[in-house]
Amino acid sequence: MNILIIDAQGGGLGRQLVASIKKEFPKVEITAVGTNTLATSNMLKAGADHGATGENAVIVGCRKADLIIGPVGIAIADSMYGEITPAMAAAVGQCDVKKFLIPMNQCNNIIVGVKNTSMSDMIGAVIGRLRDEMNAYGKDDSP
């Protein structure tokens, strides 16, 4: 399974996602795409198998992914302080794979009805959903 993790700004969320997924599912292939080099670098340091940066990397990564994970802003044009271009948001939104979008109430994008949850709890929820997804398809790569 090829998981595409997309993040922006400093890549802090992406770094935590990569580290948590690799710990739980060491055989899963992770492609980390940052909107900038700092985000990409931080995800690679956390153990991503591949890394790339920028708009075209998001577009190509979406075509090759089996699952996409990132903050909800990756599907909203001009979000994350303008780092998500309309083409990036379209690539994520139009990609015909499951997307685990993490609610981040930032940049005037407020997810109504979502409680304030700690980052570690949200990442734990992603790991749980990923475990369910992999078990459903018989692709359990857990240790």
Q: Could you walk me through the main structural features you see in this protein, from its secondary elements to its overall organization?
A:
Strands 3-2-1-4-5 form a 5-stranded parallel beta sheet, sandwiched between helices. With 143 residues, it is α/β, with parallel strands linked by helices. Helix 3 (55-64) runs parallel beside helix 4 (86-94). The chain has a single domain, classed as Rossmann fold. The protein has 5 helices and 5 strands, in the order βαβαβαβαβα. The protein has helices at 12-24, 37-45, 55-64, 86-94, 119-136; strands spanning 2-7, 29-34, 50-53, 67-71, 98-102. The two termini are 15 Å apart. 41% of the residues lie in helices and 18% in strands. Strand 1, helix 1 and strand 2 form a beta-alpha-beta unit.
Q: Beta-strand percentage?
A: 15-25%
The named CATH superfamily: NAD(P)-binding Rossmann-like Domain
Structural class: alpha/beta
The backbone outline, from C-alpha atoms, is globular
CATH-derived topology? Rossmann fold
Biggest sheet, in brief? Answer: 5 strands, parallel
- Helix and strand element order: EHEHEHEHEH
CATH architecture: 3-Layer(aba) Sandwich
- Which segments are poorly predicted (pLDDT under 50) over 5 or more consecutive residues? none
- For the record, what CATH class applies? Alpha Beta
Biggest sheet strand order reads 3-2-1-4-5
Radius of gyration: 14 Å
- DSSP helix fraction: 40-55%
Topology, number of strands: 5
Mean pLDDT: 91
End-to-end separation in angstroms reads 15 Å
Number of helices: 5
Domain module count: 1
